[in-house]
Structure formats: C-alpha cells, structure tokens
C-alpha cells in the first residue's frame, strides 16, 4: 500500500513543480494574445512590418532590463555571481535560434496565404512530434510510454479542432508543406533554446535572439511593406503590447521553463495556445465557440497531465550533460 504521507522534501518539490506549471500556463496565456494583437496591429501596418517592430521593441526592452540590473549591481557595490561568456559555438547557436524561428514565422504566415486556416493549424500543431524526435535524435533524451501516450493524446485533441474543416486539394499542397515546415523550424528553435539554457539565462538568450532577428526581418519588411512603422499612437499600442507581453514576458517564461522542463513537454503546453486564443476571440470579437472547443481543451489538459507523469517531461529525466553548471 502506497504511503500517502509525503516527506517535507517531496512536498516542497511538488509545490515547486505546481508553481512552475502555473507559471508556464501564464506564459501560454500571454502568448495566446499574439494572434489578437497581430490582428489589431495589421489594421495599421503589414504583417512583416509587425514582426520587425515586435523584435526591435523587444530587444530595446530586454536591453534596458539587462542594463538596469548591471547598474543596480554596480551602485549596490555587488558583482555578478556568474559572468556569462560567449564562445563562437554559443554565438552560432544564438544565431541559429534567431534564424529558425524567423523562418518558422515567415513560412507560417506564407502558408496561410496558400491553404486554409484549418489545414495550417493542424499541421503546425505537429510541433511536439518534431521536438520529441529531435530531442531523442540530437540530445539522446529518453521518453517512456506514459509520456508518449500523453503526447499523442494532446496532439489528437489539438488536431480535433481543425479536422472537421480539413481540406485536401492539390492547389493547397504548397501551403500545407509550408505549415508543416513551420512546425519543424519552431521545434528546432525550442530545442536550440533548451541547449542554450544549460549555460545562459533566459533573458540573455531572448535578448540576443531578438537582436539577431531584427537584422533578419528588417530586409523582408523593407522590401515587402509600404510602411514599416505605425504612424499613430493607436498603431503603436498593439505592436508595443505584442513585444512586451508576447515576446518578452510570454517567450521569456517559456525560455525560463526550459531549465526545468524538456522541450518536448514545453511544446505540448503550446497546444493550449489556439484554444485560449479561440476563447479570447469569442469574448473580444464575438467569434463562434462550440462544445468541441471545450472538449478538446479538456482532452489537451488530460494529455498534458499524463505526459507530465511520464519520463521525459522534466529536465532531471534527461540524459544531458553540464546541467549542474547551468545558469538560473
């Protein structure tokens, strides 16, 4: 018979895990605002200009945050306990992270012009499969049957949202391929961020990734958009909120969580994003919300819970090196 009384250490670990899961839920909720903020921003500037402004504003915010921390340490007479040093492989990884996520966002936006939203969402929701496979192939991560059952249950719930509107047509093959490619590159970004978290803080990773993305997205915005910057306060508000809440806070929470959870488990949580977005759109834009949305939300939560119970959800389960030297 299992003893229902837990030791103080076990209770502390359980509480810590619960707090981390709640923090991750907050991050997903904030990220779910992105679609709505992008929709509002595109009333004033184009999609590529929105992406560019999102990154340069986020870079400025993160730079000021890092700078203020450095000044506070200097004024207080303290010093950094662990100075981050960047070797050439680290810089290359940061550049790879910025590149793959930029490609993911551009291919995702392009896919929506070549296929319907249902197809694009369904294929993009396959990100956890690529993140799990990539973690196993590249980082020797191991996942047990319980985790895999929870993963496929979660993915099944996400797919159920768009399966009723799924269309198969030759003229949509390019868009479908682009949506699938966006899932591959998004999974690659999560895996690269997971690797970087063994050495760098979440803020540093996010700062350099956004910094590189500014230079990657500016040429695209300059060549494809008539207007790069909003011309009114009403136009600046949604793009600023997109940078602050979605890029800095939401993505920052995801990057922080990669110190404690695997990239595969984080990618499962991301499947909650379209459900939350749909619910918010129901409140804000009076869009249709049916019983299927609520059922799939429940299925996804159950799948995440099952996956959390399996081997492969926590970083301590992973067969990776240099975890003890990671910077919190």
Mean pLDDT: 80
Estimated helix fraction: over 70%
Radius of gyration: 20 Å
Strand content: under 5%
SSE order, as H and E?
HHHHHHHHHHHHH
The chain-level structural class is: mainly alpha
Overall geometry comes to globular
Distance between the termini: 38 Å
The beta-strand count equals 0
* Unreliable residue runs: 1-6, 319-328
Detail the topology: elements first, then pairings.
Layout: H1 8-31, H2 34-41, H3 47-75, H4 88-114, H5 117-124, H6 127-139, H7 145-163, H8 173-196, H9 202-224, H10 233-257, H11 263-269, H12 272-284, H13 291-309
Kindly describe this structure.
The protein is an all-alpha fold. It has one domain (32-70, 85-317). The protein is 73% helix and 0% strand. It contains 13 helices and no strands. The chain has helices at 8-31, 34-41, 47-75, 88-114, 117-124, 127-139, 145-163, 173-196, 202-224, 233-257, 263-269, 272-284, 291-309. Helix 3 runs antiparallel to helix 9 (202-224). The longest helix is centred in the first third of the chain and has 29 residues, at 47-75. The radius of gyration is 20 Å and the shape is globular. It starts with 7 loop residues before the first helix and ends in a 19-residue tail after the last helix. Residues 1-6 and 319-328 have low confidence and may be disordered.
């Amino acid at each position: 018979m299992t003893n229902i009384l837990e030791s103080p250490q076990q209770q502390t670990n359980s509480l810590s895990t619960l707090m981390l899961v709640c923090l991750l839920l907050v991050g997903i909720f904030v990220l779910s605002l992105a679609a709505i903020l992008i929709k509002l921003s595109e009333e004033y500037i184009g999609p590529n200009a929105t992406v560019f402004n999102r990154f340069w504003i986020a870079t400025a915010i993160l730079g000021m945050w890092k700078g203020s921390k450095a000044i506070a340490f200097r004024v207080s007479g303290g010093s950094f306990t662990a100075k981050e040093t960047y070797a050439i492989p680290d810089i290359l990884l940061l550049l790879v992270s910025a590149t793959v996520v930029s490609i993911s966002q551009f291919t995702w936006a392009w896919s929506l012009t070549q296929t319907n939203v249902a197809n694009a969402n369904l294929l993009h929701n396959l990100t956890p499969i690529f993140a799990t496979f990539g973690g196993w192939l590249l980082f020797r991560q191991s996942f047990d049957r319980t985790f895999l059952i929870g993963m496929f249950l979660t993915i099944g719930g996400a797919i159920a949202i768009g399966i009723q509107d799924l269309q198969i047509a030759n003229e949509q093959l390019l868009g479908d391929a682009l949506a699938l490619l966006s899932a591959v590159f998004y999974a690659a970004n999560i895996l690269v961020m997971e690797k970087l978290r063994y050495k760098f803080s979440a803020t540093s990773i996010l700062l350099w990734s956004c910094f590189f993305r500014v230079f990657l997205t500016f040429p695209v915005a300059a060549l494809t958009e008539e207007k790069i910057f909003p011309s009114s306060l009403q136009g600046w508000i949604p793009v600023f909120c997109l940078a602050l809440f979605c890029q800095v806070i939401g993505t920052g929470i995801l990057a922080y969580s990669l110190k404690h959870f695997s990239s595969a488990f984080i990618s499962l949580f991301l499947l909650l994003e379209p459900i939350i977005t749909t619910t918010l759109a129901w409140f804000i834009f009076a869009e249709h919300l049916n019983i299927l949305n609520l059922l799939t939300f429940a299925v996804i939560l159950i799948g995440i819970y099952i996956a959390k119970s399996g081997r492969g959800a926590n970083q301590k389960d992973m067969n990776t090196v240099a975890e003890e030297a990671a910077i919190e």
